[in-house]
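Design review, sub-item: ligand-bound model
Attendees: FS, YL, KQ
YL presented the inputs for the heme C complex:
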Amino acid sequence: MRNLHIVALAAALFLTAMSSSAAEPGTQSAASLAEAKVASSCQKCHGTTGDSVSPIYPRLNGQQADYITAQLKAFRGRRRGDTRAQGYMWRVARELDDKTIAALGQYYASQKPTQPQTGGALAAEGEKIFMNGDPAKGIAACQQCHGKDGEGSGSVPRIAGQHSAYFRMVMGGYQLGLRQNESMRAVTKNMTNRQIEALSSYLSND
Ligand code: HEC
Ligand code: HEC
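KQ shared the predicted structure:
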């Protein structure tokens, strides 16, 4: 009788040990892998859901998963190399493996996106460029690639609801070639500062 109790106890302990080892890295689910990384790193700048408070950190909530994974790999491979990318994201991305990167993309894509804070005369000017471009200057309509609500698709990013300071900085970065992308270079090449301001008032949310 006593021996049976010991056997039962040993079996119970064994099962407990087995189930706690399921939480070890390697067997972790994608969601818990992402949550752990967000808690230990990303949230310091981007916030827990990706809705960052400071406008110098881009919002990631509701961003396209494929875009997030492509950017994290570009930081890791040192292909996205403007000053702030180097200063903030190179070190962070160096420590991420492909599995964690994929999990982080899913995590942020599933968070509720921030809506644009649109309105006013300048926003109306921005809406026109967003919908129709500016053919006289060779500027293509943003919606062609970013979708009619600026929601993005695949590796084309959501641009609606971003911080205006980050939006303006990124547009300037493409214009000067600090951040390299053929499509965005063509779009920004002949763009005036006023047009960037107008687009920002249509799309962004401070
Ligand atoms: C110390 C602050 C800091 C931490 C920690 C940090 N980031 Fe960033 N992140 C930034 C800054 C600043 C940028 C903008 C870089 C630029 O302007 O090119 C950025 C950009 C990004 C971008 C590109 C967004 C876009 O719209 O193009 C992604 C994706 C990203 N971070 C994901 C993460 C993830 C995932 C983590 C955690 C593993 C993380 N970041 C941790 C500061 C940080
Ligand atoms: C031909 C397709 C195309 C058109 C047209 C286009 N874009 Fe883009 N855009 C892209 C792609 C692709 C990227 C991702 C580039 C990269 O990886 O750096 C991008 C990136 C961006 C980003 C960076 C987002 C971030 O989170 O860092 C902004 C901002 C942006 N586009 C704004 C615009 C605006 C505003 C317009 C219209 C004036 C526009 N785009 C027109 C394809 C396009």
